[in-house]
Amino acid sequence: MKKIKKIRLKRPYVNPKYKFMFKKDYIPQKYNVIYGGTGSSKSFSLIEMLVEKCILHSTFDILVVRKYATTLKDTVEMPWLDMITKRYINVLSNSGLKEGRDFTYNRTLKHIKFASGSIVRFKGYDNPEKLKGIDNVNVLWLEECTDFTQSDLEDIQDRLRATPPPNHIWGRELKIFCTFNPIFKSHWIRTYFFKDEIDMSEEIHKDTVIDSATTFSLKTTWRDNKFYNGQYQDEKLRNKMKIKNPRKYGVQCNGNWGVLGELIYEHYKVDILEKDHSYYEDISYGLDFGFDHSTAFHELGKKDGDIYVLRELYKPKLTVTDIMKELKRMYPNTYNSIRIYADNARPEAIEEMRRAGFSGIRACTKGANSVLEGIEWLQDRTIYIDESCTGAKNEIESYQWQKDKRTGERIPKPIKVNDDAMDSIRYGTEKFKKDKKLRVAWC
User: Fold this and answer.
1) Which of 93, 200, 272, 385 is most buried, judging by how many CB atoms fall within 10 Å of its CB?
2) Which of 74, 19, 380 is nearest to 231 (CA)?
């Protein structure tokens, strides 16, 4: 491969707030905290800058880390490749950059090598041992840094302990970039990098770093992205979010640190609901297995973006056989076909029900942040509960976030007491989330 001496962007993609990174004399601090709202081009702009450095300079050895390796391909590797192949032009050849000629991409080892000699590697931290043996890293990027713990950051730094070469344009100190949405005020990142006081005099709050000699911070929102063409341009949508989910509005639209109230769901109503399925756009069912605590089953309706809790089974001391008897009584003609999303922690119970004729039952999908993501999805909606569903009614009235024992502040973990109906309802909404109209972006 022949080193590229001069490049240009196909179009002027650089956002004004990030132009300083592209200057020849730009040298980052030890810690570079890039955060803010959704659609603010945080990751895009950082990739754009680092790709340019790698193309034109020979000494960049970059390690991009996500908490979970399974998220690397779509959220990290592909955006890098897209930037390399679609945004830049080799001036001398007057063509885009091509794999094999201007760079190589090792899909197995997950790294990109540039003709200049620079390299970028992609790793997941779910197996920290894989970070061993990586020498000479001089730039570390923790993408979605809120997924990591403070000890993760310190451990990664200890494992790397690399010294950049003498001729590196950024000096001989490891440079660390952290990108994230500031999801919760109680998060360790805020106390680690920022002073406790926050200037809340304007809608977009201002934070001050603890040590400006070692830490640089940049906060941006969708308003700073001149190429943004997304949902937050809709003032009606922003106002609706501001009323229904003010914490999410503050985080996603304004890039502010999220502050949790006591109750997890604040927008719910108890009433006599229409039971005729034709009234709703779709119907789904959720099931949380229990014994010492209550088994919770709920029939859910979806209409105009909101969720309706129509029927309920809520009893303790039920075996799987008991559950099937109850559901056959409730749905004598359709029990074998209704789509039930059940707790995937009980695969043997799900299989037993399937063999007994409940062919529509399936395990719900759970991931690293599925509980929080499911809660946030429901917080964007009004939850209507039929007055006959006393289990759901009683639980939602007391469903709260945990408190940090040290600070007394709410943290993003539900109290695990009397949450069976809340889990059942969250499982049941999985079917609705597959409807594009009801999806919510969180990035």
Assistant:
1) 385
2) 380
Output the 3-class SS for 150-170: HHHHHHHHHHHCCCCCCCCCC
What amino acid is encoded at 114 in this protein?
F
Let me know: does 274 contact 224? Beta carbons within 8 Å: no
- Nearest partner of 407 among 258, 165, 238, 186, judged by Cα: 186
DSSP sequence for 274-320:
P--GGGSSEEEEEEE--SSSPEEEEEEEEETTEEEEEEEEEESS--H
Does the pLDDT value for residue 435 go beyond 70?
Answer: no
**Region of 410 on the Ramachandran plot (φ > 0 left; ψ -120 to 50 alpha; else beta):** beta
Contacts for 255 with CB less than 8 Å, ≥ 6 apart: 35, 36, 37, 40, 181, 182, 204, 219, 220, 221
The pair phi, psi for residue 323, each rounded to 5°, is: -60, -45
Cβ-based burial of 92 (10 A; exposed 0-12, middle 13-18, buried ≥19):
exposed
3-state SS class at 40? coil
Note the pTM of the prediction, 2 decimals. 0.72
Tell me how far CA of residue 101 lies from CA of 47, 85, 113, 155, in angstroms: 21, 11, 11, 37
pLDDT tens profile 27-38: 999 999 999 999
Rounded CA-CA distance 383/381 in Å is 6
In the chain, what are the domains? 9-228 (3.40.50.300), 268-434 (3.30.420.280)
**Identity at 320, one-letter amino acid code:** V
In this predicted model, which residue has the larger pLDDT, 10 or 227? 227
Q: How many CA atoms lie within 13 A of 164 on its CB side?
A: 22
Strand partners, 307: 302, 383
